[in-house]
Write a structure and sequence with these properties.
This protein is mainly α. It has one domain. It is 75% helix and 1% strand. The protein contains 17 helices and 2 strands. Strands 1-2 form a two-stranded parallel ribbon. Helix 4 runs antiparallel to helix 13 and helix 15 packs antiparallel against helix 16. It starts with a strand and ends with a helix. About 2% of the residues have low confidence.
Length: 397
């Protein structure tokens, strides 16, 4: 049964609403900062899997709308970013990039070790390493033909997609608890309490939204997307390929640091309307991603996959807790970055952002974290990961 794009989009809205309701009713979900779309998205994913096993009915979703929502979210992050914040994040950004590259090597060595222990080809371990986890579904799909045709792993696509899928779930569940532990253990708090960049706080106080502010927000988000497309096309002409969401982020950063300085006008940066639009965009995106997972397609590979993922989960958890937190300054921003690193180390950029959003909505905003993490995961990781994967294939292929 194939649900069209319109139906999928509306169902995702209901799933997100269900997640918010469940998180409001069960304090354990809030205590561990589990993102609301993860709560309900996994329930729908499990329900479709049970339906398939019981009746043979396969439900699939048209995810056309999903990518547009991701663009809105990153454009909103960019509109909240001034050059002073970016400049202040320069050194932490460089440190996080270096640490993430080190983690890539550790992740691949871990995957290779577990694959060898299970009697599998060593290159299979790479599919359970940075190819599928730090790289995600996109990198997996891109590299699968190379593993199949040049290294004899016939089911490379299935193994990689399975690892990326389960990694996405683990990443969604890991970031919040890491941040909660660090914030509680070290009694951390933001330097000042501000309106969140994404969404609204969890308190009961009414928060008004201005009609024209919402219109202004939607307009400048669309302008950011248009500028991002121009940036992407220009870079492609120069031989540089970047995801459109990263280009939209850059486009919004350019706009927010130029237009308000040239023309005196009200700007959506820091507004509740921008925060709410970005929150909804990310929430529906993640709900669609999780509810569309087809768990029954990877049952035969469950043993080796679970073994690799268990080892990778422990590695990511320990690395975030004892390396990333200390390198990033051992403060509140560092704790939020750890939540984001939990997302990118096993999942994807949207998962990292959802993890940080859940933490920020509860404890307070962390501006640098919301700039540094997507730049690392959306730009530097893709470039570095391709070089690392190539080197490991030379060593173990």
């Amino acid at each position: 049964m194939q649900l069209d794009s319109f139906t999928t989009f509306n169902l995702a809205i209901l799933v997100l609403a269900l997640g918010k309701w469940l998180n409001s009713r069960f304090s354990v979900l809030r205590d561990f900062n589990i993102p609301e779309p993860v709560t309900s998205g996994l329930l729908v994913c499990l329900a479709t899997a049970i339906l398939f096993v019981a009746t043979g009915v396969e439900i699939s979703f048209d995810l056309t709308t999903r990518n547009f929502l991701l663009l809105y979210f990153f454009a909103a992050i960019g509109l909240n970013s001034d050059l002073k914040t970016l400049w202040a994040g320069g050194k932490p950004l460089a440190i996080l990039v270096a640490a993430t590259i080190v983690f890539m090597f550790l992740q691949n060595f871990t995957g290779i070790a577990v694959a060898s222990l299970m009697g599998l080809d060593q290159v299979v371990g790479l599919l359970g390493g940075s190819v599928s986890l730090l790289g995600g579904h996109g990198t997996t799909i891109a590299w699968a033909p190379t593993f199949a045709e040049q290294h004899g792993v016939a089911n490379a696509s299935e193994i990689g997609i399975a690892c990326a899928t389960f990694g996405l779930v683990l990443a969604s569940l890991m970031g919040g608890p890491i941040a909660k532990y660090l914030i509680t253990r070290h009694r951390l708090e933001p330097k000042k309490v501000e309106q969140p960049d994404v969404g609204i706080t969890h308190d009961k106080k009414s928060q008004d939204l201005d009609y024209f502010s919402l219109l202004r927000t939607l307009f400048w988000l669309n302008v950011s997307l248009a500028l991002g497309k121009l940036i992407q096309e220009g870079l492609e002409g120069a031989g540089v390929n970047l995801p459109l969401f990263v280009c939209s982020l850059f486009g919004a950063i350019i706009l927010t640091n130029t237009f308000p300085r040239l023309v005196k006008t009200e700007w959506p940066a820091g507004s509740r309307s921008l925060a709410l639009v970005s929150d909804i965009s990310l929430g529906v995106f993640l709900a669609m991603s999780l509810m569309s997972l087809q768990l029954w397609t990877i049952m035969e590979l469950a043993g080796p996959i679970l073994g690799m993922l268990a080892a990778q989960f422990v590695l990511a958890f320990v690395f975030a807790l004892f390396v990333i937190f200390w390198l990033m300054g051992r403060d509140y921003e560092a704790a939020v970055i750890c939540a984001g690193f939990g997302g990118i180390s096993l999942g994807a950029t949207p998962t990292a952002m959802a993890n940080m959003t859940a933490v920020a909505q509860k404890y307070g905003q962390a501006h640098k974290a919301f700039i540094i993490v997507p730049l690392v995961s959306g730009f530097f990781v893709d470039i570095s990961n391709a070089l690392v994967i190539s080197r490991f294939l030379e060593w173990f292929g």
